[in-house]
Amino acid sequence: MYERVFELIAERKFSVLREELKDMMAVDLAEIIDELDKKDGIIVFRLLPKDLATDVFSFLSSHLQKDIVEAIHETKLNEIIEELFFDDMIDFLEEMPSNVVKKILRNVTEEERKLINQFLNYPENSAGSLMTIEYVDLKKEMTVKDALVHIKKTGVDKETIYTCYVINDKRKLEGIVSLRKLVLYDEKLLISDIMNQDIVSVSTLDDQEEVASLFKKYDLITIPVVDTENRLVGIITIDDIVDVIDRENTEDFQKMAAMSPNEEEYLRTGVFALARKRILWLMILMIAATLTGTVITRFENILQSFVVLAAAMPLLMNTAGNAGSQSSTLIIRGIALGEVELTDYLKVLWKELRVSVVVGFTLALANMLRMLILVRSDVTIAFIVSFTLGVTVVMAKAVGGTLPIVAKKLNLDPAIMAGPLITTIVDALALVVYFNVASVLLGL
Predict the structure, then answer these.
(1) What pLDDT, on a 0 to 100 scale, did the predictor assign at position 425?
(2) Residue 407 has what pLDDT?
(3) What is the CATH number of the domain that holds 151?
(4) What is the pLDDT of residue 444?
(5) Do 66 and 195 have their domain in common?
(6) 190 DSSP β-pair partners
(7) At CA 241, angle to CA 235 and CA 245, rounded to 5?
(8) Which has the closest alpha carbon to 54: 6, 92, 16, 9?
(9) What integer pLDDT is reported at residue 417 of this predicted model?
(10) Do the beta carbons of residue 195 and residue 163 sit within 8 Å?
(11) Domain of 349?
(12) Of 63, 112, 213, 218, which one has the fewest beta carbons inside 10 Å?
């Protein structure tokens, strides 16, 4: 289908293209527009019917939305904005420059303007910044029949009707009821008789990661957002949480690779912007790596006396770094999923020590046999390298397993204690152990 769209654009058969676009999914159209150059992308967007254009607009990246806003007539822009779900409109406004925001705000009602400003003032990455006000609210005095009539009347413009929220006259949240119950239960029953009062909710200021963990823990598709007085102010839907999880995972991967987080698409980010995100951490790691050089310089006399020891240094440093990275990756992921808490540091340390002993002994034994049989090294040298290998694996796994928890305790992102940083630390530790063991056993 993509090829067909590109072909019609190239042949400028726009009337045919308009008819074929009507039957396509909004997300697929957004991908096609993203692949086109700016001019053709705007042409395709303007060919779409209003309802479809609104759906497609919500899937476009912020830079494409900006291009379209600048290119289309203000009347059509207002029509699109009016049809967007409220949370999608807030996401859009957050990414737009101030002149675009002002252009849109002057065409909305006073009530809508107050709501938009309220949402834009919520802290970034908070539950308040994610929520939408488009939900179905019910009164507990309603019958099931009344509730269904109310949903049919008001539900068309709501983001979801599958979960309805029961509030009192002061908008305090009293319960929830699913559409499934409303359809299946006797229509004469009161909402108060069938609503669930065991409610999982979040505050407007709760962090989005905490909200995502609640969705996972309770297998939710929506969650109500309340203020300090338990008044319902909005809901968060699963589609927004999926986006949050995607962003958070991307951010963690970038931090684990020693880069500053960047939300822009890779191919659309400038060279200098990408370099700026990487230089700082590489500089820090480069300076930290001088520890390794200092250790080598301090034991230079040993290397001069036994040059064969230098050949084993890459083996020890790489194995130690890999072992530390394995542990840190598992613990960072465990913290992110809520499987590992701050109070579990002793359990983590004990488990990693036991695992590392098994792994370290196995690797040390295998290396001892390798050096004696294949390399035909001196027994003492083989023992020094193998013993150090086992000890450094134990140290690396202990360090890799506990440092992410320490980072979390210090209110730092555990992801910074991953790959490159752990490797730099355990490399230095491995060499300290190596040269000290060699000094003792070789009498130097």
Answers:
(1) 80
(2) 81
(3) 3.10.580.10
(4) 63
(5) no
(6) 143
(7) 160
(8) 92
(9) 62
(10) no
(11) 289-442
(12) 218
Output the pLDDT for position 150.
Answer: 93
Residue 247 belongs to a domain: no
Based on the fold, state whether residues 104 and 154 are members of the same structural domain: no
Structure confidence at residue 361 (pLDDT): 93
Whether residue 263 lies inside any domain: the answer is: no
Tell me: do 411 and 324 sit in the same domain.
yes
How many domains are contained in the chain? 3
- CATH code at position 41: 1.25.60.10
Q: What is the CATH number of the domain that holds 297?
A: 1.10.357.20
The last residue of one of the domains, among 176, 204, 237, is 237
* Same-domain pairing of 147 and 213: yes
Q: Is residue 265 part of a domain?
A: no
Residue 325 has what pLDDT?
83
Beta-carbon contacts of 19 under 8 Å, excluding residues fewer than 6 positions away, are none
Q: Mean pLDDT of residues grouped by 10 in the chain (444 residues)?
A: 74 79 84 81 80 82 77 68 73 69 66 70 85 90 94 88 92 93 93 93 90 89 91 90 79 61 63 70 68 72 70 85 84 79 85 91 93 86 90 89 83 69 80 85 74
pLDDT at 221: 92
Give dist(CA 73, CA 51) in Å, integer: 17
Q: Are residues 105 and 160 in the same domain?
A: no
Nearest C-alpha neighbor of 42 from the set 16, 18, 70, 20: 70
| Cα torsion 101, 72, 265, 159: sign | positive
Residue 304 has a pLDDT of 63
